[in-house]
Amino acid sequence: MSRQGVDLATDKARALKLSPVSRETLKRLELYVELLLKWQKTTNLIAPSTIPYVWTRHVADSLQLIDLAPDAKTWVDFGSGGGFPAIPIACVLADRPGSQVRLVESNGKKTAFLREAIRVTGAPAQVHPERVEKYTEGPVNSVDVVSARALAPLKVLCDQAFPLIERGAIGLFPKGLDVAAELTEAAKYWNIDATTVASKTSPEGCIVIVRGLKPL
Fold first, then answer.
1. Apex CA 93: angle with CA 92 and CA 96, to 5°?
2. pLDDT, position 142
3. Is residue 24 classed as helix, strand or coil in its secondary structure?
4. Which of 84, 106, 115, 117 has its CA 20 to 30 A from that of 28?
5. Rounded distance between C-alpha atoms, residue 178 and residue 74, angstroms
């Protein structure tokens, strides 16, 4: 077995300890990671340095959001890229009738990958191949959660997510060391009802939970 194979197996075990899933969900996640690593050879979906840690750095990091909105069935994910957090969340929600994850992504190669990931896993998800600003311009059905991972500063995310949060969605935005500065900057433009929760997968990371937004 290759060194990377050992690393992946060890990392997978650690990830599943952090975020346990059902046997059916695990099968879907395994199909997704296998597809991701295959496409990664020709399309940059994740940082190459994180490949040996794909299960903790990306899969478990995504799954922890579900614990913050355990009853949510309808998610919108902005800038889905390689599918995080949207596809892992959709893999879990496949066990919950009536659930759907909408992936908003404008990059053509990445939307092709996301569609294939949805096909392979059978996850209840749909790709919207457009920019976030365009998606939120039109009529958008109410949703439970809007998420975005490694997409933009919090102020920009507030600008983009406001139409959904105004209608009752909560925002779940994983952030890193600069979270305090991002909150300060966003507060110059928005009255934010926000809290932070420590990340399970990154000692310096957290998730910003936005429950209310009003422009100043």
1. 125
2. 80
3. helix
4. 106
5. 29
Question: How is residue 15 annotated by DSSP?
Answer: H
The pLDDT of 5-23, averaged and rounded, is 89
| Residue 144 backbone dihedrals phi, psi, to 5 degrees | -85, -40
Amino acid (one-letter) located at 195 = T
Cis-peptide into 85, omega within 30 deg: yes
In the predicted structure, residue 2 carries a pLDDT above the cut 60: no
Contact 66, 92 (CB under 8 A): yes
pLDDT at 5 over 50: no
CATH architecture of 3-170: 3-Layer(aba) Sandwich (3.40)
Q: Three-class SS of residue 176? A: coil
pTM of the predicted structure, to 2 decimals: 0.94
Closest to 82 measured CA to CA, from 123, 116, 132:
116
Per DSSP, the residues of 199-210 read -SS-TT-EEEEE
User: What confidence tier does 36 reach under pLDDT thresholds 50, 70, 90?
Assistant: very high
Across the range 74-103, mean pLDDT stands at 97
**Please, are residues 174 and 89 in contact by the beta-carbon 8 Å criterion?**
no
pLDDT at 198 over 60: yes
Instruction: Please count the other Cβ atoms lying within 10 Å of the Cβ belonging to residue 73.
Output: 16
